[in-house]
Design a protein that fits this description.
The protein has 267 residues and is α/β, with parallel strands linked by helices. 38% of the residues lie in helices and 21% in strands.
């Protein structure tokens, strides 16, 4: 059975990350994507040129409209740019969707280095949303920001993943792509223990939106009923192929090939 995935995140006008990447990923994996847009961004492969936030009350309206009619099997969050947005998302989920699994991708910085989330929002994310999460999917810079630690190797990643669990979430997938080296090591931590996951690094500049893509791929798998480990492995395999088959677009960090499952843009 395909999954109904409600994505609460920002829009990327360049199409490589954010809501656009989420919709492409969920659709390519056979799910049905719905959205509540938290912010509009003017961006391309070279960077983020402008950000315009959506009023929190309207974010609530979007979530309510979807859940009151279509419903959802899983919720995935992305860019929540200020503390008011975090609060309205948390309160609406508590009221209308407390029984639905929540995958939190703690988006903080764009691929080009643009700061997308303020300090107050980060604190609210850690104290209010992460404790409600079924899974969080930070990369190493995001984990460093959440924990105020330095992560330089796999041992640091394991320690950080265990520390992130103490924030109250059920599971953590800490992504190691930013550390460099080959293979890429990710760390999956839950109450069942800690597992390191290895994958060959794809040498490409088409890596915009990898975090959004992976979190949405995992969300689609969990929404269709896969166990956590299976959903993570399926999502990582989808992203790896999307990186390996991506075709260059733009002058900076291009998008991955979200459509490889249906033959779109395949090499």
């Amino acid at each position: 059975m395909s999954a109904r995935v409600l994505v609460i995140a920002g829009s990327d006008s360049g199409g490589g990350a954010g809501i656009q990447a989420d919709i492409k990923t969920v659709t390519a994996l056979g799910g049905y994507a719905m959205t509540a847009i938290t912010a509009l961004t003017a961006q391309n492969t070279c960077g983020v040129q402008a950000v315009s936030g959506v009023e929190p009350a309207f974010i609530r309206e979007q979530i309510t409209s979807v859940l009151s009619d279509i419903g959802a099997d899983v919720i995935k969050t992305g860019m929540l740019h200020d503390s008011e947005v975090v609060d309205v998302v948390v309160n609406t989920i508590d009221e209308l969707a407390a029984h639905i699994p929540v995958i939190v991708d703690p988006v903080m910085v764009s691929q080009s280095g643009h700061q997308l989330v303020g300090e107050a929002a980060m604190r609210r994310l850690a104290s209010e949303l992460i404790p409600r999460a079924t899974l969080i999917t930070p990369n190493t810079p995001e984990a460093e920001a959440l924990l105020s630690v330095s992560i330089r190797n796999t041992d640091d990643m394991v320690n950080a993943a265990e520390a992130l669990l103490q924030l109250g979430c059920q599971a953590v997938l800490l992504k190691g792509g930013h550390l460099g080296g080959d293979p890429v090591i990710d760390v999956l931590a839950s109450d069942r223990g800690v597992v390191t996951l290895s994958q060959p690094r794809v040498q490409t500049t088409c890596d915009h939106g990898t975090g959004c893509t992976l979190a949405s791929a995992i969300a689609e798998g969990m929404g269709r009923g896969l166990p956590l480990g299976d959903a993570v492995n399926r999502g990582r395999a989808y992203l790896h192929r999307a990186l390996a088959t991506a075709q260059p677009l733009g002058q900076g960090h291009g998008p991955v090939n979200h459509g490889h499952t249906v033959g779109i843009m395949s090499s």
